[in-house]
Structures are given as structure tokens and as C-alpha cells.
Amino acid sequence: MGGKMQQTNASAASTALYDHAAAGGSLGPSADAGDAVMARWLQSAGLQHLASPLASTGIDHRLLPNILMQGYGAQSAEEKQRLFKLMRNLNFNGESVSEPYIPSAQTSAGVSASDGFYSPDFRGDFGAGLLDLHAMDDTELLSEHVISEPFDPSPLMPGVSKGFENDFNLTSSRQQGEQTDADLSVPSPTNEKENSTKENNAAKIKVVVRKRPLNKKELARKEDDIVTVNDNALTVHEPRLKVDLTAYIEKHEFCFDAVLDERVTNDEVYRVTVEPIIPTIFQRTKATCFAYGQTGSGKTFTMQPLPLRAAEDLVRLLHQPVYRNQRFKLWLSFFEIYGGKLFDLLSERKKLCMREDGRQQVCIVGLQEFEVSDVQIVKEFIEKGNAARSTGSTGANEESSRSHAILQLAVKKHSEVKDSRRNSDVNDYRSGKVVGKISFIDLAGSERGADTTDNDRQTRIEGAEINKSLLALKECIRALDNDQIHIPFRGSKLTEVLRDSFVGNSRTVMVSCISPNAGSCEHTLNTLRYADRVKSLSKSGNARKDQAVSSLPPTNKDASSTSSLPVSVDVDDVYEQQEVRVPDMGRRVVEKETPSYNPTVDYDKQPSGFSLNEREENGLSSGIADRERFESNSSYGGLASQKVNSSYTQHSADTEEKVPKVSPPRRKISREEKSEKFGNWFKKDGSGSDLPTAIPKQQSTGNYSASNTGSRQYKPDPPVGNINAILEEEEALIAAHRKEIEDTMEIVREEMKLLAEVDQPGSLIDNYVTQLNFVLSRKAAGLVSLQARLARFQHRLREQEILNRKRVPR
Ligand SMILES: Nc1ncnc2c1ncn2[C@@H]1O[C@H](COP(=O)(O)OP(=O)(O)OP(=O)(O)O)[C@@H](O)[C@H]1O
């Protein structure tokens, strides 16, 4: 294991405190051990920032239960009433405890650096444990030399990176055999296809579909394979019944950037999806690759090998002198989002906090990042993280992921630490500046939102959270591809975490995984509609950028063709050029694909879940409908046609200015829909997972059927946002609890001070009594307020339980 591992983490907090205690606290060895115990307790409660002040007060840890008033508080109704009166007299605002924690100046400034915990060194260490997203100082990232250095294409050429094939290709031996057969029997990809794949690689959003083979159970049940793949297109043959019960097959055709059938290996998946964006990571790109699909469709199977492959290529590039000389290093972190909460998969599932810094950069406090210089160690981390994931059993998958797992590989540039700066910059050195990164997301099953009323509350909340995040993710992709200034990343924890993947120089690859069996038809169609929507957004974005490219001076194109840039160009200029060169490649693809255009395409009969008529009938403005019409149009008949492209070019030229004006109402609609759609978590059937992207308002009041896309019936909507409200209240309750403990600590400090004063000769007992009375009242009021909040929350849970029972007669 030649890998070098370096750790930057929040556990340094405890270490610092233990060190401090070991260095000789005032209470001697037993108190030191107590401090360590307290530090651990506080850390586990997300209150580590309180550790040092507590240590500095010299409070004996054995007193902690008393200090925290365990078993204390208003027990009887009479006591409670008295406390309420007291609160009123004190003019307390019970809501104030719900404020999220913001370290007060008092807590941080009042402690000297010598306390260890708050020393600059330690703080920096802690900071280094953050997902270092705020280190994007453009001018510092890459020297002109680096930018002008052409990438050595060889390490990423297919066939070169075979080294780890045997190690991590999860394909079973059975599949390996199939693959060999496939290699012989399946016609090798045409040049055209290869070209189109390569050139399309630069698209900002790329949508790939992967179909898995029928599994043993499905074969045993003699289920039909209803999905046929033909190059970049696929057809779903949906078994349907007419009203007179005659069986018939309805065909749904889709076309994507790439469609990978059941014979395609994980290796090939990597080549099509991630490999092309690896070099861009060194050019400030934040890439995201995620798998989407129903449970058991192969998301984990698809996603697991990708980071390892990517790490292999990244490490290879990092070893090139140009990057090695600049101290470019690779860092890995792995965490999951489960039930709206973050857990570090490489640190015993330690709960993580997400914070925004002053520059609105998202930081994951306490997330461990490991420097990795060897692929073997990456493999070990991945295995460790996967073993720590939240999984459970579903009907479709015995090892089903119940969370979103996010593995991030970040390339950082580490500055040289000169002796004079060593002290202050040592942590800067450790964390480095993020040059670019790639996030691999294995999403929880997309239909989990439909695992609803038969399940317990926890599972429903899980489902709601998953649905919410998938919708939010789609919203972000939509905004991203429209180049909107506002990206709605606050829609969920998932998108908040991925915030930096949605701004600036980003690339997104979506792998939609589908099951081929007839029993999964509904889910498969849902997945494909979601993917289709994302893809159509991608097309519009690229087409618009083609405009910009066509007006570029030829020198840019020259630069593109050689992949090298003039050394004299300044950094920002370079990136400007890179931004536009990418669509230029896309444009060439468009032209190549001309023959595949089918001019007879009837918009209304397109196999999309969102036919034009539906949209118009359902109240979208004509401007929006026009735009959607274009998007739908460009989504079919190949990647895009010349005709479509040129018509859009014209249309776009005419209406370029109008697009932003059209966008806001469209976004507004989607926001309204979003809250309606969140209600789907109640639904028992597959429709709950449908995640339609443009469900018109009327749908909530009546049945909706998309004749050409499989029938989908909409039930009356449940009360909107119930679950979201509960999740929010839960967060608020936990925040209030933390705040209450902080207040208690503060009060305890005051009490200790009072005790110290009263013991002094000549102290005034009257003062002591008055102040103690005041302090105790505050303590009691804090508890009552928290209890009241807790009672409200319990009430909400009960209410929701009753509501569910009423809604679903068992
Ligand atoms: N392309 C494939 N070839 C062979 N087997 C596959 C393929 N895709 C998936 N499988 C198998 O199908 C099963 C389910 O796959 P996987 O666990 O990846 O599904 P998932 O989409 O991640 O499910 P969940 O959302 O429940 O976590 C696994 O046993 C996996 O090995």
C-alpha cells in the first residue's frame, strides 16, 4: 500500500482538547480524563465548540448531568404553570431558541489561543477538514504555463487504462463471458458513433442510459425483456390492455447521448461517461456524475467502479511533471445524505454539519478528506465507505441503498510553505486550493418516494426526502443549463452540498439506469422521462452556446484544435476561451448528425411524457410552449439535426434576448408544481416516483393521462408539504436543543463565577441571591421553552399519523 494518506478532520478538535488536558489542567489527571470524556460527548452532540470553554471553567465532568439539569425541570402541571408565569414576567420569547447556532463573539473571542481548541492552528486544522470550496482563487489556481500545457492524451486513451480492470470491474464472470461473446457478436461501434461520442463529451450535461440484464428472479418468473436498444436510441414495449381487455403493445421511443445495453461493461461505461471530463478537472471544472433509476436498476453497480477509474486517471495526470511541480494533489472524501442528514462514511458515520461561510460557500464541517496518491488506497476507501452506507432490503433489491452516497475527488494545488509563513499558513498548505473536482453520486432509488403508506413513518420520511432531493437536483440542472443566475440549490441537502457543482465551470453526467423486465415498465418509463427532460435541457443550452461560438474569431478554433493555448493569454481569458470551445465541439456533432433527422416527427406524438398539446392545454404560456416545443423537437431523431439546429439558430438569433424574459414565469410554474409534486410521497403506486418535470396545475384536480406515454392517473393531492414541514420542525427542534445546551453552559459559567465571588471575604449575600435567582429563572425558562417545542413536535407527528390513517384505508 504505497498510498500516502493525510487526514484533516474535526477529530483534531478532540485531540487538541485532550492535549490541552494532558498539558496540565488545573484539576489534575482525573479532571483531564473528564475533559476528554466531555469533549467526546460534546463532539457527538455537535457541540464541540463548547469543549474548551467548559474545560477552562474547570467544571468537574461528574457534575455534567447536574449542569445539564438531567431529571430536572418542571414536572407537575403546577410547576409548569409557575414557570410559564416566570417566563412571561421575564418577557422571554420562546421562539428564540430555534435560532440556528451561530458561534457568538463571546464564545469564541472570550477564549485565548492558548486554550488549544480556539488556537489559530487548531482552527485552521478544523478548517482544513471542511470541504474546501472557498479556495477558488482564480488567479492563484493555475499558472499560464499549466494552462498552456496540452494534456497528454495518452493516459486517457481507451485501452491504456486497463491496469485495474481485474481489480474492480464488478462484472460477474457470467457477464465477462457475455462480454466476450458480445465483443465478437455485436458489431463494433462505427466511426461515426465513436466520433459523436467523443465530440459530445464536452457537452455541459450528458445523459446516458444503461440497461441491465434480466436478473435471476426475473428470468425465473419468465418475465419479458421489454427494452430494445439501437445505437443511441431505445424503445420500451409497454404491454397494455384496451378497454375491451384486448392486449396490445405500446411503443415508447427515446434517444439519448448514449444508450448502453446489457452487454456493456463497466469499463465501457466509464469511457463514455467520466473519462472525457477528467482532463477538465485540471481546468477548474467541478464535475458531477450521478446515477438515477429505480431500486435494483443498477445504480450502485454502475457507480461503484467509476471513482476508482477516475482516480486512476487523475493520479496518472498528477504524476505528469507539470502538475507535480505545482504540487497538485488528489483528495478524497465520501459521505452520504440519509433522511436529510449528512454522515461521513469514512469516519464511522460521524454526523456532519453543513454551513455556509461569509462568501456563501458551502462547507461540510468535520468531513474527513484524505490525500491519495495511489489507486489502491482509493479502492480501500471506497470499500470502507460502501460498507458504511445505509442499506436495506426491498422487493427489488436485497442490498438497496437508502441514501445518496457522494464520493468526491478533488484536485488541489498546494502552495509552498515558506518558513516565515509556516505558522499561519500551515493549514492552508494542508487544505490547498481546489483546482477542480468530480463528485460521484449514487442516488437512492428514484421510486423510493412511492414506498409510502404501507411503510412506517421513518420510511415515508426517507421517501419524501429522496423525492425532494431528486426534484431539487433536476431543478438545479434545469437552471444550470439555462445559464440562470439563480440556481435553486437550497431545494434540498443534496443540491446544497453540490452547490459548487452548479456554478461556474461545471459538467454533469447523468446515468439513468433501467430494468428491462415488464414488471418495471412504469418505473422504467418514469426514469426515461426524467432523463429525457434533463437531456432536452442540455440540448437547448448547447444550441444557444453554438451561437456564441460561430461569432468567435478563427484563432480560438485554432487553439481548440491543438488543445494548447498561447502562454501569454491571461488566466481569465483562457477560461473564457475554454468555455466556448467546448460547445464548438458540440456544434460539429450536430452537423455530423444531420442525416438522422426525421423531418416528419410529429411533436404531439413524440414519446415524451410532455407532449406539446398537454403543455398548452395546461396553461403554459405560448412563449414557454414554443421553447418547450423546440426542446422536445431537438430531443428526438438523433442528438439534434441540422435542420433543427439551423432553425433554432435562426429562432435563437431572433429571440436570444427574449429567453430570459420567458424563463421567470416558467420557473415560477415549476416551483408551484414542485410543492404539488412533493405531495407524491403519499401515493402508493409508481406515480409517486414519477417526478414529472412540467406537470400542469390542472393535474392536481383531475385525472391526467398521457396517451402516448403510458397511462398515468393522478389521484387527488394530499396536503402539500406535510412531510417537509415535519422535517423542518425536526431540524428546528434539534437546533433548539443545541442552543439550549449552549445557553445552559453559559449560565453554568455565570453560576461558577457567582460561587467564586460569594466565597470571597466581604461579598454581599444580597447580590448573590438576586443574581442567582435571575440565573436560575433563565435556566428554567430555557427548559420550558424547549419542552414546549418538543410537545408541539410530538403533536405534529401524531397529527400526521392520524392523517395518514384516514387517507389510506387498510
Ligand atoms: N449491468 C448489470 N449487469 C449485471 N448485473 C447488474 C447490472 N446492473 C445491476 N446488476 C445487479 O443487479 C442488482 C441490483 O443492482 P444495484 O444494487 O446496483 O441496484 P441499485 O439501482 O443501486 O438499487 P438501490 O437503489 O436499491 O440501491 C445487483 O445484484 C447488481 O449486481
UniProtKB/TrEMBL annotation:
ATP binds at G293, Q294, T295, G296, S297, G298, K299, T300. Keywords: ATP-binding, Coiled coil, Cytoplasm, Cytoskeleton, Microtubule, Motor protein, Nucleotide-binding. Residues 204-537 form the Kinesin motor domain. The keyword Cell membrane does not apply. Residues 558-569 have a biased composition (Low complexity). Residues 578-594, 670-687 have a biased composition (Basic and acidic residues). SMART domains: KISc. Residues 632-652, 696-712 have a biased composition (Polar residues). This is Kinesin-like protein.
